[in-house]
Design brief:
It is built from 12 helices and 12 strands. The chain has 337 residues and is α/β, with parallel strands linked by helices. The strands form 2 sheets. It has a 6-stranded parallel beta sheet with strand order 2-1-3-4-5-11, sandwiched between helices. α1 packs across α3 and α8 packs parallel to α9. The relative contact order is 0.13.
Length: 337
């Protein structure tokens, strides 16, 4: 004979708490004290409690699901795995679950958002690669549907998390100029997302302020195939004495091309090229040439997005929050073994 499934009432009796408190604790609501929530979760594990999600949805109309719509460029970022882990870790031990939906192939980005809403797949959305006048954000605001973005827009205030890209670009220029570099270039990803404009603006303003030549390189992007980056570097890198890379994926073909062109990389007057690299993966620890590096913590970003959505679910009337992560100080990175 199968044992009876544990229920909210079972957990309430086991913990000495009310059924309402147990339900709030299982939902991960911030109104529940941490020690109370831990007590309920431990009892749920001990009694093998499994919430009937279908019954909850019928009763509340909620899926207890957060959906991340993956832009197709997300997969090219080496730190994307950590971003997803951060999102998932934020929801751990709550009643919410994460689903990842790639942007529909051959469709406008808004179609994926409408697909989720029309089918009732989630209670809220996480979006990336926002643009200044993002149609997805505009539509979600009009529909009053919970969402958060990794990236800023120029639309009315909404929940967002972002890296201070303009500050990173400014720091990169300051570092290169302090090393005596005067002919600078910045390599950007393809597209017209807000963060790309922030990088370009921060770079251009810093070059103007410090009186050095600066070029936002248009002929090649960080999303181009490795051979395209290699060929561009062979043909054009000698026009610069300092380059800023806003992603680490193309560093290997770029370094190979610099070496094949006879350009030495690193600080000091004897070196013809100096690099600043923003990274989010362990890749740089295997690079032998010295370069200036800035770490973007993608796990932290994902966790912040998930945590904010939990707060939004618990308190729908919260004022919008714009969380901006300041870049850490640039450090000279040089693998020694």
């Amino acid at each position: 004979m199968q044992p009876r499934k544990a229920s909210i009432t079972t957990l309430a009796k086991a913990t000495g708490l009310s059924s309402a408190t147990v339900s709030r604790a299982l939902a991960g609501l911030p109104s529940v004290l941490p020690e109370t929530r831990d007590k309920v979760l431990q009892a749920a594990r001990d009694l093998h409690y499994v919430r009937d999600r279908a019954a909850v949805r019928l009763k509340t109309g909620k899926t207890h699901t957060l959906a991340f719509i993956q832009d197709r460029q997300d997969a090219t970022q080496l730190g994307f795995k950590d971003f997803l882990l951060g999102l998932g870790d934020a929801l751990q031990d709550t009643d919410y679950h994460l689903i990842v939906l790639p942007q529909l192939a051959g469709h406008d980005a808004l179609d994926s958002v409408q697909y989720v809403m029309e089918r009732g797949l989630a209670d809220g959305l996480v979006l990336s690669y926002t643009s200044p006048q993002d149609a997805r954000v505009r539509w979600l605001q009009r529909m009053d549907f919970p969402f958060i973005t990794y990236g800023r827009t120029q639309l009315p205030a909404h929940d967002s998390v972002d890296f201070a890209n303009e500050r990173f670009a400014d720091m990169a220029v300051e570092t290169l100029v302090a090393q005596g570099r005067k002919r600078l270039g910045i390599l950007l990803p393809a597209g017209a997302a807000s963060f790309q404009q922030h990088l370009a603006d921060g770079f251009a303003q810093a070059c103007l302020r410090l009186g050095v030549a600066g070029v936002c390189i248009q002929a090649v992007s960080l999303d181009d195939p490795p051979d395209a980056i290699y060929q561009w570097t062979r043909a054009h890198a000698s026009a610069f004495d300092g380059l800023v890379l806003t992603r680490e994926a193309p560093i290997l073909p770029l370094l190979s091309a610099l070496a094949d062109s006879g350009l030495q990389v690193g600080p000091g007057a004897s070196k013809q090229m100096e690099l600043v690299l923003r990274y989010s993966s362990p890749l740089p620890q295997y690079i032998r040439q010295p370069f200036w590096a800035c770490f973007e913590d993608m796990h932290r970003a994902g966790h912040a997005l998930g945590s904010r959505m939990l707060a939004r679910f618990a308190q729908p009337d919260l004022a919008p929050s714009q969380q901006l992560f300041t870049p850490p100080t640039l450090e000279l990175f040089h693998a020694t073994s």
